[in-house]
Structure formats: structure tokens, C-alpha cells
């Protein structure tokens, strides 16, 4: 049985990443400024915490890495505001759906994999808490239960493009790399799974290519091409 890992942002959930991040940060600043967080400093601290998660080596969760950095900036008392951040992601963050697109072909692709006997997991870069990840899954027309596993900042201690991130997902799924596929839009974060022996498909509808990858070197295209390719791989 083949296992297919899917990225989320820019893959199952179409988006311009910069537009989404800027819009989402705008809502976050408006939520947190009354608590005393100056907007530019808060965004700088969020990016610093994000970098700390990307550097994480699995010794703790990404949540641990983020809050270790964040409290290094604002002090341990900032942990008192975790409840405010949680409220933000449960409520205000939902407005950020406006910065995302939608395609019914995302859910169609997941159904196809299952109809062909494959397994599905969501390998979205685990920089968000579960409540935000689950929301974005639903914005894509799916449900968290559609995946055997989805990564969040609470449940894993690595990020893309660290190969240990992919190794840990495969370990949890008890899936061999040569029997697994990674589908994603970011050449630098998703195509690296091929280094483990996984097959990869570069979904180019919202492609990010900061590493100079060449389309002709990879199976690539939009959802129609992806589904055709999967039919061949999963039969």
C-alpha cells in the first residue's frame, strides 16, 4: 500500500504565501496590540520563533522551540498570553481564509488516492498550532480525519526541509520511503523528500522555487496532471 504525503499551503490550499502571511499578521497584531505588543516588534519575534522551529533538531517539539525563543524576547510572563494566542487562532485567524483560494480538486485528489488503495497524510510545515492547521484543512474542503497523520507545532520536533522531518513521518506511519510519495508546491521544502528515496510530484499551481529547480527534472503540473500521475503510481 502506497502512502501519499501532501503539503497544505499552496498545494491542497491554493494561496499566495506572502499575501496570506501579511494578512494573517495584520489580524494578529490587531489582536495583541491591546495587550501591549507593539506590532513591528511582535512580527519580528514571531519570525524569530519561526526560525527557531526550523532549526529544531527533535530534542523538543516545535512548540517548545517557539516559546523558548518568544519568552527570550518578552520574558517568561509572556506565557500568560498563550491563552490569547489560542483564542486568536480559534477565532480571528478564521478571517485569513479570505487570503486563500479554493479548488474542489484537492478533495477529489484525496478521494482518488483512497479509492486506489493508498494512504494519505498531511506533511504541512509544522509552524502552526493544531487549531490553525485544522482550520486550514477545512478551508481546503477537507477534514482532519481525511489524513492518518497531520503535523502541527505541538506534535513534532522538526520542520521542512530537514530530512528528519520526513523520516519521522514515515516512522510514525510505518511506511517505507520507496513506497511513499510527497506532493508539494515548494521546490526547496518538498522535493527534498526524493533524497530519502520517495517519489515526488511538484504541484506548480502555486509554485515556490527559491532553489532554482527545473520543472523538467520532476513530475509536475496542476491537479489534473497530478491525478493522472497518481493513477499510474498507485495501480
List the defining traits of the structure above.
Rossmann fold, about 45% helix, 2 domains, five-stranded parallel beta sheet, alpha/beta, single chain, about 240 residues, about 10% strand, 9 helices
Verbal overview:
The chain is of the alpha/beta class and 235 residues long. The protein has 2 domains: 3-15 and 100-234, 3-Layer(aba) Sandwich (Rossmann fold), CATH 3.40.50.1000; 18-97. The chain has 9 helices and 5 strands; from the N terminus they run E-H-H-H-H-H-E-H-H-E-H-E-E-H. The radius of gyration is 18 Å and the shape is globular. The model has no long low-confidence stretch (mean pLDDT 97).
Secondary-structure-based class equals alpha/beta
Order of helical and strand elements: EHHHHHEHHEHEEH
Q: Mean pLDDT score, rounded?
A: 97
Provide the CATH superfamily of the largest domain: HAD superfamily/HAD-like
Give the count of helical stretches.
Answer: 9
Residue stretches low in confidence (pLDDT < 50, at least 5 long) are none
Largest sheet, in brief, is: 5 strands, parallel
CATH architecture of the largest domain: 3-Layer(aba) Sandwich
**How many E strands?**
5
CATH topology of the largest domain: Rossmann fold
How much strand? Answer: 5-15%
Distance between the termini: 10 Å
Across the major sheet, the strand order is 2-1-3-4-5
Give the helix level as a range of percent. 40-55%
**Total domains:** 2
Name of the top-level CATH class of the largest domain: Alpha Beta
| Global shape | globular
Amino acid at each position: 500500500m502506497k502512502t501519499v504525503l501532501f503539503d497544505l499551503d499552496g498545494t491542497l490550499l491554493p494561496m499566495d504565501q506572502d499575501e496570506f502571511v501579511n494578512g494573517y499578521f495584520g489580524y494578529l497584531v490587531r489582536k495583541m496590540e491591546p495587550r501591549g505588543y507593539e506590532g513591528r516588534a511582535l512580527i519580528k519575534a514571531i519570525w524569530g520563533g519561526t526560525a527557531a522551529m526550523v532549526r529544531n533538531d527533535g530534542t523538543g517539539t516545535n512548540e517548545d522551540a517557539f516559546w523558548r525563543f518568544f519568552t527570550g524576547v518578552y520574558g517568561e510572563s509572556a506565557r500568560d498570553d498563550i491563552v490569547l494566542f489560542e483564542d486568536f487562532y480559534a477565532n480571528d485567524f478564521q478571517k485569513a481564509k479570505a487570503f486563500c483560494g479554493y479548488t474542489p480538486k484537492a478533495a477529489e485528489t484525496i478521494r482518488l488516492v483512497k479509492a486506489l488503495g493508498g494512504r494519505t497524510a498531511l506533511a504541512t510545515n509544522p509552524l502552526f498550532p493544531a487549531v490553525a492547521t485544522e482550520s486550514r484543512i477545512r478551508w481546503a474542503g477537507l477534514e482532519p480525519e481525511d489524513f492518518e497523520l497531520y503535523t502541527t507545532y505541538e506534535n513534532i520536533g522538526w520542520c521542512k526541509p530537514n530530512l528528519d522531518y520526513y523520516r519521522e513521518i514515515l516512522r510514525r506511519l510505518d511506511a517505507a520511503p520507496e513506497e511513499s510519495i510527497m506532493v508539494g508546491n515548494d521546490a526547496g521544502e518538498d522535493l527534498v523528500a526524493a533524497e530519502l528515496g520517495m517519489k515526488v510530484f511538484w504541484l506548480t499551481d502555486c509554485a515556490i522555487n527559491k532553489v532554482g529547480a527545473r520543472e523538467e527534472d520532476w513530475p509536475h503540473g496542476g491537479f489534473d496532471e497530478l491525478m493522472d500521475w497518481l493513477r499510474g503510481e498507485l495501480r
